[in-house]
TrEMBL record:
InterPro entries, A to Z: TM_pro_TauE-like, TSUP
Similarity-based family: Belongs to the 4-toluene sulfonate uptake permease (TSUP) (TC 2.A.102) family.
Coiled coil: none
TM ranges: 72-91, 98-116, 131-157, 169-188, 200-218
Bilayer disposition of the protein: Multi-pass membrane protein
Entry superkingdom: Bacteria
Subcellular location: Cell membrane
Protein's name in the database: Probable membrane transporter protein
Record's keyword terms, sorted: Cell membrane, Membrane, Transmembrane, Transmembrane helix, Transport
């Protein structure tokens, strides 16, 4: 069992990540990872963040089930299912620090620019199915390398000016599916330490408390506050990878 200090840090990290993810729909790993990656080794921290994120996403899916856009999400998921195995293979055989830092810089610059931009230009409604699948592929690839599969789909939704309920309804099932698939691949490769299950069990109270409070906060914020929150979290996510 972990010591008291580790227990406290684990619970604080998971609660903060779950709250932010419940509010915004993503960024669990960006928030929780700021602590967890300093407490655990990456091969323990990343699967733990994925497992916790699945718990958060399950809560979010149930709470927002009436807003889910299954057709668009399935296209994202199909693309993501292709990207995740490539990422998991790279994670195990390649030094991915440069890739992570490059992606972090791009995300941080995008978020900073959009936060300072005075107006948002909404894209047209028609989007080819292959483009949606390509966005999913990018999300799956990045998610396997960083445990942040929602970053690219979230940026895409923001660029199109989607309302908060539409954005959550589209991205939420995708993030959940990518995390489940990535965990399954890690288990298949026998790279998932038994310690991850112990840490996950310990963190469950903080996980569900944070998720519930985050969903309540999501329902109470308006579109402007939600978008600013998402951009701020994208900025933090990008910086955390640099």
């Amino acid at each position: 069992m972990p010591d008291v200090t580790t227990l406290v840090l684990l619970s604080v990290a998971v609660f903060a990540g779950a709250f932010v993810s419940g509010l915004s729909g993503f960024a669990f790993s960006a928030v929780a990872g700021a602590i967890l990656l300093r407490v655990f080794q990456p091969l323990e921290a990343v699967p733990l963040m994925m497992a916790c994120s699945i718990g958060v996403q399950a809560t979010n899916l149930w709470a927002l089930r009436r807003s889910i856009r299954w057709e668009g999400s399935l296209l994202l998921i199909v693309g993501g299912l292709i990207g995740v195995p490539i990422a998991v293979s790279l994670l195990q055989s390649t030094d991915t620090h440069l890739l992570r830092r490059g992606f972090g810089i791009i995300v941080a610059l995008y978020a900073a620019y959009m936060m300072l931009r005075p107006t948002l230009v909404t894209a047209g409604e028609a989007v080819g199915r292959h483009w949606v699948a390509l966005i999913g592929f990018g999300g799956g690839l990045v998610g396997g390398l960083t445990a942040m599969p929602g970053a690219i789909p979230t940026i895409w939704c923001d660029m199109r000016g989607m309302p908060k309920s539409e954005q959550r309804g589209l991205v939420q099932p995708f993030i959940a599916a990518m995390q489940v698939f990535a965990i399954a691949l890690l288990v298949g490769h026998q790279d998932l330490s038994s310690k991850v299950f112990v840490d996950l069990a310990v963190s469950l109270p903080a996980l569900f408390a944070g998720s519930a409070l985050g969903v309540i906060a999501f329902r109470r914020v308006n579109e402007t506050v939600f978008r600013k929150t998402v951009l701020a979290l994208l900025l933090v996510s990008g910086i955390s990878l640099i």
